[in-house]
Amino acid sequence: MEAAAELAQRLRAAANERLAGQEPLLLVAAPLLALLAARAVHAAAADVADRGLRTVLITLAMAAVKLVPGVSGYIAAEKSKVVEKLQSGSASSKKDLRTELPAVGIPDGVIGDLQALKDKDVRWQGKCSGTVYIAGSESEGHFSLINKAYSMFSHTNPLHQDVFKSVAQLEAEVVAMTAALLGSKEKASGGQICGNMTSGGTESILLAVKTSRDYMQSKKGITKPEMIIAESAHSAYDKAAQYFNIKVRRVPVNKEFLADVKGFKRCINGNTIMMVGSAPGFPHGLIDPIEELGELASQYGICLHVDLCLGGFVLPFARKLGYPIPPFDFSVKGVTSISTDVHKYGLAPKGTSTVLYRNHEIRKHQFVAVTEWTGGLYISPTMAGSRPGGLVAGAWAAMMSLGLNGYLESTGKIMEVSKKIQKGIDDISGLFVIGKPDMTVVAFGSDAVDIFEVNDIMSSKGWHLNALQRPNSLHICVTLQHTAIYEEFLKDLEDSVDTVKANPGPISGGMAPIYGAAGKMPDRGTVKELLVEFMDSSC
């Protein structure tokens, strides 16, 4: 002990002698500067770890290039040209917008004006990927039924449960019926599945992420939350991350274009609050390995959200019809929440979705309760306060009118047509189907032609498909609208491929050059700026 004390004293004396000649200000500033430098190095290392060295270097290089006189202005001008191209004529219609109330109301002309505007919409019947999921005309059959249900309850608001008790009951029944399709009756679910209706898949996802964040904070004390998603997961998770200050760890998909479970496991750390699995994923219609992700979630005590926004009203019925559907719902151990849209294959009016939780302990973290407001005590279950009761009634009417037999019938039709489309695409020389579609989304690319040029030709024939990236591809989300004209789709697709083969290169007014350039552009920040400029000028 004495030797150690003596050594410490000698070291202290040597340090004081060495520093005696230094400026006092320098002695104070040096540790602070060292601390700042260390923090900068740590931040840079973290940035490289998150985005990769290549991305960071490209970002820095672009920032430096923009400092060169004239370059920033040139880039801005080129971005304006691209935005104008993306708008494709929408700017002209924006100039005709009304900006003031009419001096005198026009009650007799309102409906006529609405019809005139509606008549200018694109013809969507049968030629849109997804978009409209109900078959037939909007003035008859199932359309007419849900429209009538909506009009009966268009004045109601679930916020006022004491007044509109009917709507509260309708919402509870929609949630319970949806939960029953997704495993709530199975013993493995725990028997406490609960949830709420929302305005759509994005709100359902936002709520599930927010709830998982707050639940894990209360359970583990996590204050710097992270979530793990596959690069095929819906962009709504990025939106949730921005809204709720959550770090995203994005994992590349495997060779089958599915979530890479080993990659997920490598990303789990003490700040991980949740993982996301899709059933199916929007881009390629493939079901992630939910069981394996559930095992990971259980092992590490974190949340697992399953995105069933597309599959919730197809997969349960496809399984009953004998299609090989892997496990995806609350019967899987580790699944803590599920989002599923009623306004897609549930054939309900637009603006209806559900978010479900394994138990009430988790769901309680979804609610916002305010006790100090002068307006009184306040609590709200979802992001919106006031909500349209008409949509709740429309969803209830859709589910009750169709029943199990109706959904089995519609699922049988769209699954059969999806398989025919998949086979038809496989038979077209130069095209290939991406992965092995589990459901009603069929994605396809090409090793012979520019697939975006094919898309431009298809657009000229009235088709509206989804353009994808990594790899460059297209997809069609098959609905009841397609069951009568899928052969026309395949014929037009084959003709479009042949046209591009015979005359490669962009067509006048086509979007292929922009899509192609955006996919190859290494500076993703510039692509992001383009999207923001486009949106700002479009709404």
TrEMBL record:
<feature type="modified residue" description="N6-(pyridoxal phosphate)lysine">
    <location>
        <position position="344"/>
    </location>
</feature>
<keyword id="KW-0735">Signal-anchor</keyword>
<dbReference type="Pfam" id="PF00282">
    <property type="entry name" value="Pyridoxal_deC"/>
</dbReference>
<comment type="pathway">
    <text>Lipid metabolism; sphingolipid metabolism.</text>
</comment>
<keyword id="KW-0746">Sphingolipid metabolism</keyword>
<dbReference type="InterPro" id="IPR015421">
    <property type="entry name" value="PyrdxlP-dep_Trfase_major"/>
</dbReference>
<keyword id="KW-0443">Lipid metabolism</keyword>
<comment type="pathway">
    <text>Sphingolipid metabolism.</text>
</comment>
<dbReference type="GO" id="GO:0019752">
    <property type="term" value="P:carboxylic acid metabolic process"/>
</dbReference>
<keyword id="KW-0256">Endoplasmic reticulum</keyword>
<keyword id="KW-1133">Transmembrane helix</keyword>
<dbReference type="GO" id="GO:0030149">
    <property type="term" value="P:sphingolipid catabolic process"/>
</dbReference>
<dbReference type="InterPro" id="IPR015422">
    <property type="entry name" value="PyrdxlP-dep_Trfase_small"/>
</dbReference>
<dbReference type="InterPro" id="IPR015424">
    <property type="entry name" value="PyrdxlP-dep_Trfase"/>
</dbReference>
<dbReference type="GO" id="GO:0030170">
    <property type="term" value="F:pyridoxal phosphate binding"/>
</dbReference>
<comment type="similarity">
    <text>Belongs to the group II decarboxylase family. Sphingosine-1-phosphate lyase subfamily.</text>
</comment>
<keyword id="KW-0663">Pyridoxal phosphate</keyword>
<dbReference type="InterPro" id="IPR002129">
    <property type="entry name" value="PyrdxlP-dep_de-COase"/>
</dbReference>
<dbReference type="GO" id="GO:0008117">
    <property type="term" value="F:sphinganine-1-phosphate aldolase activity"/>
</dbReference>
<keyword id="KW-0812">Transmembrane</keyword>
<protein>
    <recommendedName>
        <fullName>Sphingosine-1-phosphate lyase</fullName>
        <ecNumber>4.1.2.27</ecNumber>
    </recommendedName>
</protein>
<dbReference type="GO" id="GO:0005789">
    <property type="term" value="C:endoplasmic reticulum membrane"/>
</dbReference>
<keyword id="KW-0472">Membrane</keyword>
<dbReference type="InterPro" id="IPR050477">
    <property type="entry name" value="GrpII_AminoAcid_Decarb"/>
</dbReference>
<keyword id="KW-0456">Lyase</keyword>
